[in-house]
Every structure is written in C-alpha cells, then in structure tokens.
Amino acid sequence: MIYDYKVQDISGKTVCLSEYKNKVILIVNTASQCGFTKQYAGLENLYQEFKDKNFVILGFPCDQFGKQEPGTESEIKYFCETTYHITFPLFSKIKVNGSEAHDLYVYLKQEAKGVLGTEAIKWNFTKFLVSNRGLVVKRFAPQDTPESLRDIILPYLEQAI
C-alpha cells in the first residue's frame, strides 16, 4: 500500500506517505527543463482547486530523461516557487527506472502499468492517481495535461472520507 513508503522532501526531511491517508493523491515525476515543464502551472491550479477537498499533488524531480532536471534540490525548489508559484509538496530528486529506482516508483509501476503492459516510465510528467484508500487507480502519460485530469479526479474526491 502507498502508505508504507517513506520519501525525502525537497529539504531532506523524511516523510511517511501515511501522512496523506484519506487524501486523493496525484504523484508526478517532474523536470524543470522539459517540454512538459509548463504543466507545473496546471498542476498548481489543480492543487489550488481541490486541496481543501482532501487532494494533494506530490512532485518528484527526476533527471533520468534527457538530463532535464540537472539542478540541486534548492535550485529546483527555487525554480518551482518563483517561476510557477508551486505550493504542493516537492520531494528530493529520485530515479524512477532501473536498478536504482525508488521503491515507491517500483510499486507505482507494478500497480498501474503503462501502454501494452510496460512498467517503465517513458518520460517526465508521468502521473499516478491514488485513491483516498491508498490504492493506485490510474496512470497518465506525460502528454495528459493536468486540466484533462480534472473530471477524472473529481469522482474520487466525492468518494473521499
């Protein structure tokens, strides 16, 4: 279950995902120099719209795709806060594929496979929707914009405790 995992926030503090129990969660691997980086604006808008309805977005910077997240955690945080005014939780840079993939992403990929049943993350801004019960319910491709997810997320919020 998603609540069994621990991650490091962007400041290096250990966070147990059980802190997000009873919330609908959207988990996203992000990058600051990607063609999809502008999705930060849509993600923040989605977060602002639904954060008071037990919804949270968790952003995980990743440099595995085209070296598009080369900065340090403090540089990433500064970029996100000053360029896109991000207020949703950001975490330390992780790997999402390969032998060094973070355990959280190993789990996410097993629970919600990609096209043709593949597990590998194909690019930045792949998104995973987690229900308020901690179950991974859907995987979205990088080109699926935050705006296009609104109506998909809404029924899960209505079911939230």
Distance between the termini: 18 Å
Number of helices: 4
Low-confidence runs? none
CATH homologous superfamily, by name?
Answer: Glutaredoxin
Q: State the strand order across the main sheet.
A: 4-3-5-6
How much beta, percentage-wise?
15-25%
Compose a concise summary of this entry.
The protein has four helices and six strands, in the order βββαβααββα. It has about 160 residues and is of the alpha+beta class.
Plain-language structure description:
- It is a single chain.
- The chain is an alpha+beta fold and 161 residues long.
- The chain has one domain: Glutaredoxin, CATH 3.40.30.
- 29% of the residues lie in helices and 18% in strands.
- The protein is built from four helices and six strands.
- The chain has a four-stranded mixed beta sheet with strand order 4-3-5-6, with helices on one face.
- Helix 1 links the parallel strand 3 and strand 4.
- Helix 1 runs parallel beside helix 4.
- The chain is globular and about 40 Å long.
- The model has no long low-confidence stretch (mean pLDDT 94).
Keywords, separated by commas or semicolons:
4 helices, globular, Glutaredoxin, 6 strands, 161 residues, alpha+beta
